[in-house]
Amino acid sequence: MISVIILGAGNIGTHLYKAFKNAENSTVNQWYNRSIKTINKYKNEVDITDDLSQLKEADVYILSVSDEAVAAISKALPFENRLVVHTAGSINIHDLDRKNRRGVFYPVQSFTKDADLDFSNIPICIETLEKPDYHILKSLASGLGGPVKKVNSNQRKVLHLAAVFVNNFSNQMYRIAHEIVESEAAEFDLLKPLIMETARKIQDMSPYMAQTGPAKRNNLKTIKKHLALLENDQHKEIYKLITKSIQDTHGR
Amino acid sequence: MISVIILGAGNIGTHLYKAFKNAENSTVNQWYNRSIKTINKYKNEVDITDDLSQLKEADVYILSVSDEAVAAISKALPFENRLVVHTAGSINIHDLDRKNRRGVFYPVQSFTKDADLDFSNIPICIETLEKPDYHILKSLASGLGGPVKKVNSNQRKVLHLAAVFVNNFSNQMYRIAHEIVESEAAEFDLLKPLIMETARKIQDMSPYMAQTGPAKRNNLKTIKKHLALLENDQHKEIYKLITKSIQDTHGR
Asked: Which residues of chain B have pLDDT under 50?
């Protein structure tokens, strides 16, 4: 049984708390948050605190705080030589204070507080400085049921950046589509099966192979029609730039 | 039973042939293609031809040809006053020759020839000039099992444009992500659950509500880090433009 203490009660912290609490090989010894109010409703199921000096013992301390707070909180911890990990995609492992053993426990997923998440489908990327700590984190991550990967800091940084493209930027494509169809009172719902199919297709085909459409076919007539339809200048600019990117990718 | 004749054997034509053949309320009387070779392997299950003058009778003639060919082929048809429809998102219903009754039968999906498609999940957008023809097409579309929508030409055009955003442009986001992670020998597979979740999330939440990430939070430090990581100038430009678009959408 691996004991953990969660620090932070944002989206990731809250999801991790629930996941570790339910996993068979982990137990949550305590939950820290700067503001006790946020986690007060959990006080009957876990020890809660807003005081770093009251932190108990545990095998792993998980810092799920904002990127900016990682260094300061890790420095403020009132103990040494324990395993302290952060969960941030873009923060270096060396940003953690060196008085403790350091690691990263990065789930590749987008967290929304109220939406339930199935961790058995979320890859966990692990980095440590020492091998024994890697085995602890690997075991902890495996308990959540999803794939576990050893990933170094550079790899984690590009994964975090790439996640912005596949998640935030794709979602913005959906948003722009929403605006476009609403301008003619057409239904965004009609596009939902296509959105699912687009994501499903690359589960077993490369995005390169999966590409279709006027940009890939270099269908200039359709591209011209589309640009004429777009009323928003920013949408026009995005259409042109990504069309160019597709054409470059496919050698047009 | 509604009898159809398919003209064209591209991706849409081939998928529609199989779908109408298997549907309970339709039958395929004939399949025309400019090059008989493409459809020769189907000759034991359907009448095939490469000669417009040999076209039989049917309730509906479905032109699944390239956008550019719609007008010419509809003009070349050797009969009048029959129901002729095209399947193109961006082509006007009036591009069909007026000697026949005209309609549009537009499936909102991206077709790849070899991938099997479940039509029960594909919305069909229908447009006709006459009401009785609408009922024929509605019945024909319903037989495929998916949602059927009456959609006018302007709505269909914006749907086709929006489909490029959610399908081709999202797929290019996946492609860029692929390039980014490969630059550090990280695994694109680690992003696949996030890609599915991003698409799944907007099935019951607006893209506006579903947005997360550094652009929405206006996390300038992370945005700066990401831009510094990007080596490809075009990727940098895309990152900046879509980040700006998200910031504008969310009032930053």
From this structure: none
**What's the total number of domains in chain A?**
2
pLDDT number for residue A85: 98
Write out the residue range of the structural domain in which residue A217 sits. 156-249
Assess whether A70 and A12 both reside in one domain. Answer: yes
Q: What is the pTM of this model?
A: 0.93
Name every chain A residue with its beta carbon within 8 A of the beta carbon of B157. 184, 225, 229
Looking at the fold, whether B141 and B205 belong to one and the same domain comes out as no
Contact B187 A122 (CB under 8 A): no
Taking only the tens place, the pLDDT of each residue in B47-88 is 999 999 999 999 999 999 999 999 999 999 999 999 999 999
* 3-class SS letters over chain A: CEEEEEECCCHHHHHHHHHHHHCCCEEEEEEECCCHHHHHHHCCCCCEECCHHHCCCCCEEEECCCHHHHHHHHHHCCCCCCEEEECCCCCCHHHCCCCCEEEEEEECCCCCCCCCCCHHHCCEEEEECCHHHHHHHHHHHHCCCCCEEECCHHHHHHHHHHHHHHHHHHHHHHHHHHHHHHCCCCCHHHHHHHHHHHHHHCCCCCHHHHCCCHHHHCCHHHHHHHHHHCCCHHHHHHHHHHHHHHHHHCCC
Residues of B in contact with A167 (CB under 8 A): 194-195, 197-198, 212-213
| Judgement on whether residues A131 and A240 belong to the same structural domain of the protein | no
